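[job 0412] stage=fold_complex status=start
inputs:
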Amino acid sequence: DIVMTQSPLSLPVTPGEPASISCRSSQSLLHNNGYNYLEWYLQKPGQSPQLLIYLASNRASGVPDRFSGSGSGTDFTLEISSVEADDVGIFYCMQALQTPFTFGPGTTLDI
Amino acid sequence: QVQLVQSGAEVKQPGASVKISCKASGYTLTSYYMQWVRQAPGEGLEWMGIINASGGSPNYAQKLKGRLTFTRDTSTSTVFMELRSLTSEDTAVYYCARSGHYKQSRAMDVWGQGTAVTISS
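[job 0412] stage=fold_complex status=done
writing structure:
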C-alpha cells in the first residue's frame, strides 16, 4: 500500500496570513497519463469531508482561489494564500493512483 | 441539487451485520462511481472501497475483503454498503462519496452526511 505522510500535523495560523501543508507519498503518484493522482480534502468540525483539490493542482468547483495545490511525483503542497476563520478543520491528502486509496494522517488547522 | 442522503444511525451487537444505504439525487447514478470511507471516533479517514454504479466488480480494501459488500439498485438510485461480522473496531462514521465527475480523476466531489455505526454488546 502507498503510505501518505503530512507535515505539520498541527498548524496554528493567524487570519490573513498564508499557510502551507506538505504531503509525501511512499511511491510516485504520477500516472503514465501525465496526471498526479493526489487529492486534498478539508473536514470542517462536525461536517463531512469536502474536496478542495484534485489531480494535485486543480481546484474543485466552488473552492476559493486562495487554495492552491502543487507538486509532482512524491512531494505535494497545499497552500492557502490568506487564511480565513472558516478554514478551520482537518486537511487530508489522499492518493488515488492505486487501490487501496490511502489518506494522510491529517493536518489540523486552527486559529 | 446533487446530493447523497444516507440512512440513519445504527447500533449493532458484535458479530452482527449492518447495511447502510446511500441515495443519490440530482444526477444519474450509473454515470459515476461511488466510494465508501469511514472514520473511527477521533481518528482519520479510512478508504473502504469503490463501486462503478453502472456495473462491474467492486474494489474492496484488502483488510475488509470477505466482510464487505457493495450493491446498487438503479431503480431507486441507491447504493448499499453491507459490513458483516462486526467488532468494536468497526465503530465509526461511514460516508459514501461520488467520484468520476472530473475527467481522469477519481476525486470524491459529493459526500453523504455520514452514518454513525456503534458496535456494543
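[job 0412] summary: DSSP finds no helices and eleven strands in chain B.
[job 0412] exit 0
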